[in-house]
Amino acid sequence: MIPADIVALAGVESTLPVLQSGTSFLDGLGQFLSPEALVSVFVEGLAKSAIYVMIAAGLSLIFGLMGVLNFAHGTLTMIGAYLAGIVMVVLVGGATGQWGRVLAFFGALAVVFVLVGGFGGLVEVGLIRKLYDRPPIAQILLTFGVALVLEELARIIVLFYGLQPTSEWQEALGTKPAVLATRHSLGPLSIRGLALFEILLGFLTVVGIWAFLTRTRYGLFIRAGSEDAEMAEALGIDVRRVFTVVFALGAGIAGMAGAVLMWDQIWGANVPLAAETLLPAFVVVIIGGLGTFRGTVVGAIVVGMVDAVTTWWFVNVVTWTWLPDVAVFLVLVGMLILRPQGLYGVEEVGGH
Amino acid sequence: MTLLEVDGVQTYYGESHILEGVSLEVEEGEVVALVGRNGVGKTTTLRSVLQLTPPREGSVRYRDEELVGLRTHEVADRGVGWIPEDRRIFSQLTVEENVRVAVPDGEDADESVAFAFETFPELDSHRGRDAGTLSGGQQQMLAIARGLVGENDLLLVDEPSEGLAPQIVADVAQALAEASTETTLLLVEQNLPLALDLADRFYVLDNGRVVDDGDANAVSADDERLRRYLSA
Amino acid sequence: MAISSETRLVGRLNASWPVEHLRNHGVHLVVVLALVAYPGFYHLLTNSPVSAEAVAILPRMPTMIALLYFGLFAMSFDFISGYTGYLSFGHAAFYGTGAYFVILVANGKAPLLPAGTPFMVSLLLGGILAALLALAIGLVSFRLSGVYFAMITLGFSQVMYVFIRGWDYVASNPRDGPTVGSTHSEGFEIGVPYVDQLNLAIGSFSGEEVELFGHTLGTYTTSFYMVGLVVLVSYFALQRIVHSPFGRVMVAIRDNEERAEAVGYNTLVYKLGAFVISGFFGGIAGGLFAGYARSVTPENTFYFLTAGDALLASIIGGFGTLAGPLYGHLFDETIREFLSNAGLGGGLLPYLRQRLGEGVLGTEIFGGLTVEGFITAALNGHAALYVGLVFVLFVLYLPNGILGTLRQWLGGPVSKRVPELLRGLR
Which of A62, C90, C100, C199 to pair with C44, CA 20 to 30 A apart? Predict the structure, then answer.
């Protein structure tokens, strides 16, 4: 969720002047329905959806297969943000050209995916596996503890290197190429370059995961195991190894999400990023349906759009500080009341 | 040769003592039926062989190799297949994917899939649809097809006729009979005539123990011995 | 050794009622006495030759007071989560409700209630309000179970968190939270309302000092005892419920809800009842916090990590033990204070400085990093890391927590088994 005082930086401005708060609802509606505002909100909404998809996809896969709600998911995103920041700060100098920076970023993505994913695999084998015989709650508690430990470790390390854990890593933000750091005009519209980049990455992530799940043999194993792990095991699939792979994969994706957020001024690489991304991830996954990838994508779009729309209204018309955050949580609560399994969820999920 | 040898198996669910010393044997090429009332431990016996519910005591030997202590997928790799109660096909995968996922690594998946649809032509017309849309009988056929493509020398079949209309049961029986020409079957079945029809030998399970056994062809469903153990 | 019923009856007739009662609650009495003695014990040790060690290791009085009211919160969390198995991740909502209500009443912002309303009244009403909230949330949430239940309660409490953070009515700056203002400048009084001799005010500055046997009990001590009184009464209330038929159904629900339904219990009624009770005491705990601290923030009340701290305490202390979370939270607080940055009244660094001197602290370990530097970087202010590690270790190896494992080892609840064992020794 966006801290209210940083909302002003949200790229939901249009080229029209900002209205004073207290404007009548009809005036606001009229402004909202203008093409400039609608496109702007749509683009921002899609960019947010892209971020939410990346944050939540791993969580969904892990829960779908293992029944484990990974409380450490936000922490992994935060670690990914810092790692990517390190890579970028090291590789990028003042003279590095735009495309050089973009290339370096993709390098950072790869590094983060491998490192955070590998770490996730280790956590699964070393810790979570020990709790297979216990009810899934135990594993959830374990991930909660891991999150606590990792977050504090991150804080220690960040402080040690002279950075403030709670403020965004400015130097990392500075490695962005100009094309992504600025807004671009398309006629009367003004769109953040980074928003377009995020949409691209989100799209690639969704396509990549979808292809992996539906076109590869391992993806088939994951889908079968998500539905009935015991039957999958009885068909010869080493479900434990699949668990490890999925956990690592989920962690890797979470790390990559962090890398993207490292460049986004609204989020930035800092320790609170862990909690700031964990809650939306939960919301997305529950709205979409725990354990279904399709649900995660749709849930991310729903949450992203609701967030963007309510943020626009908050910035331009209404002075309720809590509107965007509450709106999203209300959608969550509404979904849990009306259809607890989410939009695409199935009743029975996960297990060994 | 003796394909499967179960000896003195004791299995628990938590603290419930379900199997109190089950012993039985299955020769290669046979069809062996395991009959008994509800709740006596028939399904648990199959699960104990597969190590899904590992026995606390006793031994399970397959091709003279001890299975107790192995992971279930290792048991499956050795050629023991499972066609469980309720079929448990993957409803969110397509029919074809259900078959494909059962093909062992190293085998030609396309070939096995083709073979499966030749054997079960009525599944072919549904191959692209989600398996959850199939009828009960079709799902049973799919489960059997899965068992067949898995390169299994021993198939553990649990209540294949349950919940199916008589005409479908006949089809299932036919499919199992054909399967028995390729592979060995250990069949758990409450439908006594069906079980005795398909089987060469039978065991009777009562209160977690084998209490009787015999030649399936020499006995009819009305036999006094069986009625004693099977009346509900 | 089996005792025949006749012998038992004779035994009961022979032992007088108070003795019997004492036997059953002997362990409780020991714990209560230890807590009662703590302020004096702390005062003694910190003014003795071992004062440096005492100051470093023993929690300060403000910490102990926080232990009491947050311990009650953790107990209320355990009451629902540990005994029914339904994890209430949104429990912070009740804590926050109780806390905010007390302050709002004191600021004259509650409808129908004047600012001068006695604390005991606003505390109770806050608890009832929290209980009603629990009823509302429970009616919706208990249609789900497991992870889904935990998530929906979390969702509700987060909605309330975000809402209260932006609601101008509660405070001039809602992000900072409400403070008790001039409308209630006196301390909040615990005891019999309006009877001056039977109540005492709490609060670090607003509390009362008491003269007892020639000693002056400071405001911290007074607050400690009065808050402790409320917590003690609450604990025994919860304990009675847990050991009643109602409590047994709660446990039956945790062990096998389907079977409990099959046997004929309307599990929804029991779950709701347990949830309402846990919400009530969660609210009381929040009210106590507000009464003592006189100012709360959205973060230390409604934020989901407040429930996280209760979870931490419950795992370390022992789920489903009721008293366990208190000990778990004591452990948590002790470590945090030991490694606290502020170095007020405790902490590793000042202690080492005193005992070992600057020389040792300045010693280099490697690469320019001194002992002091290491402690500052890796230990001080980072208690969360070590408590988190302990938490993980407990989840892995001691899932029943301290008290739970102790109970397992003894073969029953401590208060029952210890007297039995002692009798056996005789």
Answer: C199
Contacts with C315 from chain A: Cβ below 8 Å? 141
Residue A236 to residue B104, Cβ atoms within 8 A: yes
Using the structure block, give the residue that is written with the tokens 């010393």: B21
For the stretch B207-211, contacts whose Cβ atoms lie closer than 8 Å and that sit 24 or more positions apart, written own/partner, are B207/B20, B207/B40, B207/B41, B208/B17, B208/B18, B208/B19, B208/B20, B208/B21, B208/B22, B208/B40, B208/B41, B209/B19, B209/B20, B209/B21, B209/B22, B210/B22, B210/B23, B210/B24
Q: Are B and A touching by the rule of 3+ CB pairs within 8 Å?
A: yes
DSSP A4: G
CB spacing of A127 vs C163 below 8 angstroms: no
CA distances from A289 to B48, C138, C222 (A): 34, 21, 52
pLDDT, averaged per 10 consecutive residues of chain A (352 residues), comes to: 40 34 66 79 92 93 88 94 90 78 90 96 92 82 93 89 81 77 76 88 95 93 91 94 94 95 86 89 86 89 90 73 75 80 64 30
Question: Chain A: residue nearest B156 by CA?
Answer: A234
pLDDT digits (tens, 9 = 90+) for C353-400: 777 777 777 777 766 677 777 777 777 778 889 899 999 999 999 888
**In A, which residues are within 8 Å of C141 by CB distance?**
336
Determine which helix (DSSP H) or strand (DSSP E) holds B114, and give its type and residue range: helix B109-119
Per-domain boundaries in chain C: 1-58, 62-306
Q: What is the largest CA-CA distance in chain B?
A: 50
Residue C199 C-alpha, separation from nearest chain A C-alpha, in angstroms: 41
**C touches B (3+ CB pairs < 8 Å)?**
no
In this structure, are residues A330 and A324 in contact, taking their beta carbons and an 8 Å threshold?
Answer: no
Q: Name which of A224, A235, A240 is nearest B76 (Cβ-Cβ).
A: A235
CB contact under 8 A, A322 and C148: no
Which residue from A140, A151, A159 is facing C147, i.e. has the nearest CB? A140
CB–CB of A237 and B73 under 8 A?
A: yes
Closest-CA residue of A relative to C157 is A329
**Which residues of chain B fall short of a pLDDT of 50?**
none
3-state helix, strand, coil in chain A (%, to 5): 70, 0, 25
Chain-chain contact of C162 with A160 (C-beta, under 8 angstroms): no
Give exposure, C152-165, as e/b (b: 16+ Cβ within 10 Å): bbbbbbbbbbbbbb
Number of CB pairs, chain A paired with chain C, less than 8 A apart: 105
Read off the pLDDT of residues A85-114 as tens digits, 9 standing for 90 and up.
Answer: 988 888 877 777 788 888 889 999 999 999
> Greater confidence, A29 or C328?
C328
Residues whose CB falls within 8 Å of the CB of residue C5, separated by 6 or more in sequence, listed in order: none
Candidate from A223, A228, A236 with C-beta closest to B150:
A236
Whether C58 contacts C271, CB under 8 Å: no
Tell me, what's the pLDDT at A247? 94
Between C421 and C344, the higher pLDDT residue: C421
* Cβ atoms of C241 and C115 closer than 8 Å: no
Cα–Cα–Cα angle for A305, A311, A316, rounded to 5 degrees:
130
Residue of A nearest to C160 (CA): A326
| Position C184 pLDDT exceeds 90 | no
Return mean pLDDT, chain C.
84
Residue C13 has pLDDT above 60, yes or no: no
Q: At a CB cut-off of 8 Å and minimum separation 6, what does C360 contact? A: C352, C371
User: What pLDDT digit, counting tens, does each position of A327-338 carry?
Assistant: 888 888 788 778
Asked whether residue C195 carries a pLDDT value surpassing 60, the answer given is yes
- What's the CATH code, domain A6-338? 1.10.3470
Q: Which chains touch B (3 or more CB pairs under 8 A)?
A: A
Q: Looking at chain A, which residue has its C-alpha nearest residue B85?
A: A231
Bridge partners of residue B31, in order along the sequence = B185
